[in-house]
Amino acid sequence: MKLHKTLLLKIVEPNEGKRKKLENTIELYAKVLKFYLGVIPKLGMYRIASMDSKSALTFLEFNTVPTKTHPNPLYPIFGGVQTNIRRSAINKAVGMIKSYLSNLLRWHREGKELEHSKPSYPNPKNFSFTYYATDVEFEDVLSAKEFAFVKLKVIDEKGNYEFVNYPILPYRRFYEKLSELKSEGWKLKRSATLIKKGKSFYVALTLEKVVKKVKQERPKYVINVDLNIQRNLACIGIFEIDWEKRESRLYGIKFIKRELTKLAYKRDYLLEEIRLRQVLTGRSPERGDNRKLWRKIYNLNRDIALKVAKEIDEVAKYFKEKGEVVVVFEKLKGLRGKRGKGKRLNRKLSYWMRKSVQERVEYLAFENGYGIDFVYPHYTSKRCCVCGLLGERFSPNGSKALFGCSRCGYEVNADVNAVFNQHFVYLSHLLHGGGEARPVVRVGVSLKGLRKRRHNLSGASKAMATFAY
Length: 469
Ligand SMILES: [Zn+2]
Known about the structure:
disordered C terminus; 7-stranded antiparallel beta sheet; 11 helices; binds zinc ion; 6-stranded mixed beta sheet; 41% helix; alpha+beta
């Protein structure tokens, strides 16, 4: 898989003539892009989306560009378009269609039920023109001179597509950032993208990194994450595994909340407002003013999800310095088939949040080279992590935060209990060759030193677990 990052360089305020050329170029590109976005549905959106980019390019050119052997294509494009501008626009249009269709599919699968708005057919307002490597030169910029230039091919008043020099102002940390990324294995691509933002023009350089999915069969650290969006956001158990002694030791428990809880309160407040309005007006949650509120909630949720993912990533990166790491989540059950009354809204939101966190961490795992894995939840929050009996959650102060076992008397933070259980399920998965992710070892049987002790959080953190079987 290839990952990309971009670095923006501002073009120093160009004079009128030079500026006009940049505008001509972006305008023409926008026109061509719109043309192809119009043609694609007529030629078969799904058909084109199923092709690789090279075949899609050939197919679209055959149907739009007149040639000697094929003078009358089905949908001829207007004249005066340079080949590379056209090709760049076609590649962009095909990419937009592909992501539109996959968003649409996602929306039908779950977005609709989550009340996300339906994706609409691409209709870009801002345009960024990605140059072919032959039409842009930026070596000068890389040499860290005081005044650097990029050479861009732009369209002049006569319609010619020629190289022009544009002075660039690299921002203060540009060179620092560039060498940092290079040392992390990112490679600078030869192409670049021209972007218009407001009245200014920018050149974006693209860095690429090829990564492989990390598969850890014998990780040194297993990081089990319980996402409980309503309570702690996330509870992370870090376990160190000694493969010689066949032991797993709890390294520590970390909760993610702090300032994030503020965001969550804010979201819950908005949700309450929607509920109230629903009761007062009898309107469905999607209509009218509620739409604005939903948008806010959606944004807050996304914000929370990204931050939770970032904190999990920080933990994983820290332990990766010491040995191989795998981050483990519970596999999410789909939304379907869980139609019930009651807290539907909460469930939907929590599903979407957890999914967002997992997807983001999956991406970061790719980028930063640690493993990611999933276990099927198997009564992980209902079973006692010491004796394996089904216990119950209770709350001394009104929030359902503790887990208590009636057989062995064990008491612990409910999320910690879930993390422990998840860890045992994953261990048995690791031990038994990773064939099936189900608890082969009965949860709790293999534990030492946890029995009949009443733990609070700090007590649980000191606990040792052994997985001899
Ligand atoms: Zn018990």
